[in-house]
Structure formats: structure tokens, C-alpha cells
Amino acid sequence: MVKIVGMQFLDFFDFLTNSVMMPLAAMATCLLIVRVIGVDKIAAELTKNGALFQRRAVFNFMIKYLCPFFVAIILFSSLASVFGLISF
Among 24, 30, 56, 85, which residue carries the largest CB count within 10 Å? Predict the structure, then answer.
């Protein structure tokens, strides 16, 4: 009978892990690749042994801009739905 933010105890932790922590981990992964590792090292790893990386520009754009943007949308929409700002 314990409720946190209007949810049962286990429902709250399910929401926390699925709707908050997973998008944060995805955002951290994108930032790790872009800032720490660097997209050039990823490209060098993929082109090792003479393989082609034909969509390098698309990958760079997606990992730098699109993925963090959409992950932020997922995070904010899940938080807004819990607090009643939007409904699905």
C-alpha cells in the first residue's frame, strides 16, 4: 500500500528503470561515443581490414544530433505523462 508519485511501490521502480534510467543510459552512451571515444575512432575501427564505411556522414549526424534529441523527447514525454501533463 506504499505509493510514490501516485504509483504503487513496484510500479514506481518499474517506471524509474524503464522510462528514466534507460533513456539516461542511452544519452550517456551517445555522449561517451561523441566526447570521449570520438567518431573518428569508431570509423577507424569499422574500416579496419579494408571494409567500407559508406554511411559515415549519416552515422556522425545521427550519433551527434538525432539520437540525443530523440532520447530527450522520450525522457521528457515519459516524465510528462506520469505527472499528467500529457496523455497517451
Answer: 30
Q: Which of 79, 68, 70, 87 lies closest to 29 in space, CA to CA?
A: 68
Q: Which grid coordinates are listed for 23?
A: 533513456
Residues in the chain: 88
| pTM as predicted | 0.77
Is the CB of residue 13 less than 8 Å from the CB of residue 5?
Answer: no
Residue-wise pLDDT tens digits, 10-29: 998 998 999 899 999 999 99
- pLDDT for 69-83, tens place per residue? 999 999 999 889 888
Number of C-beta neighbours around residue 23 at 10 A:
20
d(CA 35, CA 79): 27
